[in-house]
Every structure is written in C-alpha cells, then in structure tokens.
C-alpha cells in the first residue's frame, strides 16, 4: 500500500484529505506543522507528500527547500488558501510537483494524485533501467572462461573505489574495454572517460596533451588549452600504452598523482584536478624499470590494483561466444540479415593462432560476413581467416 504524508495545521483539512486518500487505498500519515512533518520525512519513506504553505514554526516552502537539500525525491504537492500565481510559480521553481488552492476540489486532488503516481512510477522505471544499463555495460566483456570471470569479479569489486588500476596484456586483448567497464561501473560514470594513447603522441607533445599549455608556450600555442587531466577531472583518465611515455612526462604525471595538481606547459599556476587514473600497457614494466626506461615510483603509484587481460589463445573457450557477438554486430552495421556459423566453423576459429587477439578475431568475422553466404563453413574459415590465402 502506498504511503502519503499530509502536513497541515488545520485538522479539518487533514481529516478531509485522509478520507479521500484512504478511500483510494493509501496509508495516510499526518503532521500539524512543517517541523513535525520533516521529522516524519526523515524517519519514514513516503510515496507522496501533501503540504500546506502557511504553517507555524516551519512553513511549507521552508520544508520544501529542506527536503530538496536532503535530496529526497518524493513528490510534494503544495496546498494553500492564500495562494496566487506568484506563489504557485515560486513553489514549482523550488521543486514542488504541483500546487493546489484551497478550498480543495476533489477532482483536482484526484488528477494530481494520479499524475504524481505516474511520475513516481517513471522515476522507479528510470532507476531500474539505469541499473540494467549499468549491468549491461559491466557485462560487455564477453566470455565465461575462468580468466574472464575473474576479471569481471575484480571490476565489480574495484570499480566503486577510486583506486588506480594498471591493466596489462597483449595488443588487441581488450585492455580498453576493461578500463571502460571500470569507469561505467564507478561513481564517476556520469562524468567523462578521457583516453590518451601515450604511444601515438610524439614525446615533445605528450606534456601539452596531458597538462595543457598557455598561449605562447611554444610556436603553435596560439591560445590557452586544457589538458586531458583537466578535461577528465571528476571522471576517469585512461592512460593507454603508459610504458611509451617520455621520462619528463612520467615525472609530471607522478607529481599529479602525488599532489592532485598540474601545471600547464608555459604556466606557473597550480591547477587542482580530481580524476581517477587507469593505465594500460603491453610492456613488462618491471623490465622497463630495470632498463631505466620507466620510473619505479610511478609504477607503484599506478599499480595499486593490477589486472592482467589474457590473450585470446589463453581463453579459446570464449571464441564461439565472441565470434557470435561480432557476427551480430557486423551484420547489423552492414545492414544485412544475420548470418550464422556452422559448428565446424567455430571449431576452426578455435584452432587458429590469434596473434592479434580480439581485434584480429573481429576483423576475421567481418571478412567472413562479407565474403561468405548465409552459413559460414569451416572450409570458408580456413580459406578466408588467413589474409595471405
């Protein structure tokens, strides 16, 4: 049974509303002023709140603002015998669901009640949908092999924290997908996920890319520019191929991680940043440390939570599931009817030496979709999986 709280200093109004709501099968609670109403709101969960505006101790608008501060999303319907358009508009602006003038009209109350119930239902459906989407995102890492199950469990545990994560694995194994899943399942998911490929940016530009620059800092710096650390503040910064970062950039990243501040290239002002760092590499960073190419102190800052992504050859039992996923995706992208794999085609895919990992498998599936008929056979996999054939 849904619960309604009626807050009004007039007993007759409370009694009248109680009779209406109980007839509509609601459980009704009462409070004779805003202060007592707030106590009930804090200690109980209500589906709707009907609240008078003019009351002693704490009036309805003060209560409305306090409820907003407490981030309680229960719809509040304001009622008043001293109302006018200005009062009604002010109530709505402050977060009220609706405004009803006294003397109360039964039909008006019932319509408002129905509309508020619809709103409550939509809010609940939205919460369910968001949870469903979040679970879907979290399960976008496809596979049921022990290695992948372990990674999914790790993501579930680690994502809600702000702990730094270092993801290792071969090229094309899915390190970025792990990073995105960490972000999507974190408390920062509503903010930006910013990716920087440290291997793709020239060493002389990496500091500008990460920390930004001031106008005139170098020849092409024609205006101030924010770096990725600033852009990702409040969200997640994914430093891909961190092992290829220049020594000078490593030193600045270390300072940013230690102090949560950066300086733009050519600038002297410290800028506060708040971003979660997730890094990835296909290199053995301990070997890079031994060779003097990577800072050991930075490694320990990054590798609070290490996650290793296995190669596709180490998780062959996942290949049929991955192949079917890519088949559906490619057919949809190409705008053609979904094709299917023959059983021997999936066995052939499992037997291949996947040096390019997931990325290579995706490319092969796309090639098979384009070149093969409705059912893809094992012979066609043998013919087309190797581009040299």
List keywords for this structure.
3 domains, Rossmann fold, Helicase, Ruva Protein, domain 3, 16 helices, alpha/beta, five-stranded parallel β-sheet, 389 residues, 16 strands
Mean residue pLDDT: 89
Specify the structural class. alpha/beta
Which fold name is given in CATH as the topology of the largest domain?
Answer: Rossmann fold
Which architecture name of the largest domain does CATH use?
3-Layer(aba) Sandwich
The major β-sheet equals: 5 strands, parallel
Low-pLDDT ranges: 134-139
Strand content: 15-25%
Q: State the fourth-level CATH superfamily of the largest domain.
A: P-loop containing nucleotide triphosphate hydrolases
Question: What is the tally of beta strands?
Answer: 16
Helix content: 40-55%
Spatial arrangement of strands, main beta sheet? 2-1-3-4-5
């Amino acid at each position: 049974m849904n619960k309604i709280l009626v807050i009004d200093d007039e007993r007759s109004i409370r009694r009248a509303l109680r009779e209406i709501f109980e007839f509509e099968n609601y459980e009704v609670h009462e409070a004779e002023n805003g202060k007592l109403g707030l106590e009930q709101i804090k200690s109980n969960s209500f589906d709707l709140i009907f609240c008078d505006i003019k009351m002693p101790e704490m009036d309805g608008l003060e209560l409305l603002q306090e409820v907003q501060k407490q981030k309680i999303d229960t719809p509040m319907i304001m009622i008043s015998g001293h109302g006018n358009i200005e009062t009604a508009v002010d109530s709505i602006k402050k977060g009220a669901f609706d405004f009803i003038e006294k003397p109360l009209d039964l039909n008006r109350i019932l319509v408002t009640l129905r509309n508020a119930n619809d709103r409550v239902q939509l809010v609940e459906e939205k919460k369910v949908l968001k949870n469903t989407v979040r679970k879907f995102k979290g399960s976008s890492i496809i596979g049921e092999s022990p290695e992948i199950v372990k990674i999914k469990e790790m993501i579930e545990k680690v994502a809600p924290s702000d702990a730094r994560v270092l993801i290792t694995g071969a090229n094309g194994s899915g390190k970025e997908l792990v990073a995105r899943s960490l972000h999507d399942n974190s408390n920062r998911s509503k903010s930006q996920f910013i990716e920087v490929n440290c291997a793709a940016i020239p060493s002389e530009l990496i500091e500008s890319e990460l920390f930004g620059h001031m106008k005139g800092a170098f020849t092409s710096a024609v205006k101030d520019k924010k770096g990725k650390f600033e852009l990702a503040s409040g969200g997640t910064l994914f430093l891909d191929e961190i092992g290829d970062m220049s020594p000078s950039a490593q030193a600045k990243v270390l300072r940013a991680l230690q102090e949560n501040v950066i300086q733009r290239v050519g600038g002297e002002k410290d800028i506060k940043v708040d971003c979660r760092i997730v890094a990835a590499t296909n290199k053995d960073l301990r070997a890079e440390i031994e060779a003097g190419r990577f800072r050991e102190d930075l490694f320990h800052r990054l590798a609070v939570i290490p996650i290793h992504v296995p190669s596709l050859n180490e998780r062959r039992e996942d290949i049929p599931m991955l192949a079917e996923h890519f088949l559906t995706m490619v057919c949809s992208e190409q705008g053609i009817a979904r094709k299917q794999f023959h059983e021997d085609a999936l066995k052939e895919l499992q037997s291949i030496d996947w040096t390019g990992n997931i990325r290579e498998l995706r490319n092969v599936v796309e090639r098979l979709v384009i070149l093969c008929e409705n059912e893809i056979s094992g012979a066609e996999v043998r013919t087309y999986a190797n581009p040299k054939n």
